[in-house]
């Protein structure tokens, strides 16, 4: 618990809002996606109400709604998250098993960090394109999760990373310089 408090305080100290971001790509994500008050999670459409009003569920809904990925791979036990993503983009196909397909979005549950090896990361990297992105849940949950996040940020194929405390967003945009953002959402 002490680790999470310390991690959150560090996050608050270093984080910025849309006024501190000079990347047009990230600025649009913030202003039209994460900070857009018109995008609301339709709680009544969910089969379970546990954790629905949490900030994490609302952020996940806004992220998936903004990018509207056609194909999503979920890694780990993500029943509520799958339902939130399906509501955010009903046309998306959501897979739970990694195959040779190209995925627009890969969602990695925080409990899976300890099981993801470098070989598995390379397998997932091979299923991404320029406009693909990853969502990593709870990157500040414990020291191992933060270490996994730091390792992923250093990967040469990764160009943009966004730390929004509850999630880490990873992008592979070749047209953008490598940057890391810490954003209050």
Helix content: 25-40%
Number of helices: 6
Structural class: alpha/beta
Low-pLDDT ranges: none
Rounded mean pLDDT is: 85
The fraction of residues in strands falls at: 15-25%
Computed Rg: 16 Å
Q: For the report, how would you describe the main beta sheet? A: 7 strands, mixed
* Count of extended strands: 7
Order of strands in the sheet with most strands: 2-1-3-4-6-5-7
The backbone outline, from C-alpha atoms, is: globular
- Alpha carbon gap, first and last residue: 22 Å
Order of secondary-structure elements: HHHEHEEHEHEEE
Textual characterization of the structure:
With 185 residues, the chain is an alpha/beta fold. Helix content is 36%, strand content 16%. It has helices at 2-14, 24-34, 55-67, 79-88, 118-125, 143-154; strands spanning 71-75, 93-95, 105-108, 133-137, 160-163, 167-171, 179-182. A 7-stranded mixed β-sheet has the order 2-1-3-4-6-5-7, covered by helices on one side. A hairpin with a 3-residue loop joins strand 5 (160-163) and strand 6 (167-171). The longest helix is centred in the first third of the chain and has 13 residues, at 2-14. The two termini are 22 Å apart.
């Amino acid at each position: 618990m002490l680790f999470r408090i310390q991690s959150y305080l560090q996050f608050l100290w270093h984080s910025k809002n849309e006024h501190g971001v000079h990347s047009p790509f990230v600025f649009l994500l913030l202003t039209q996606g994460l900070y857009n008050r018109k995008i609301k999670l339709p709680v009544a459409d969910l089969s379970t109400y546990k954790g629905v009003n949490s900030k994490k569920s609302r952020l996940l809904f806004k992220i998936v709604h903004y990018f509207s990925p056609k194909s999503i791979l979920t890694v780990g036990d993500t029943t509520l998250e799958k339902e939130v993503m399906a509501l955010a983009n009903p046309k998306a196909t959501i897979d739970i098993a990694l195959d040779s397909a190209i995925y627009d979005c890969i969602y990695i549950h925080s409990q899976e960090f300890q099981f993801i090896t470098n070989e598995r990361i390379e397998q997932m990297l091979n299923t991404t394109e320029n406009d693909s992105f990853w969502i990593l849940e709870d990157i500040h949950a414990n020291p191992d999760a933060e270490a996994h996040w730091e390792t992923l940020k250093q990967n040469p194929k990764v160009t943009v990373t966004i730390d929004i405390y509850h999630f880490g967003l990873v992008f592979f945009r070749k047209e953008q310089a490598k940057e890391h953002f810490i954003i209050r959402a």
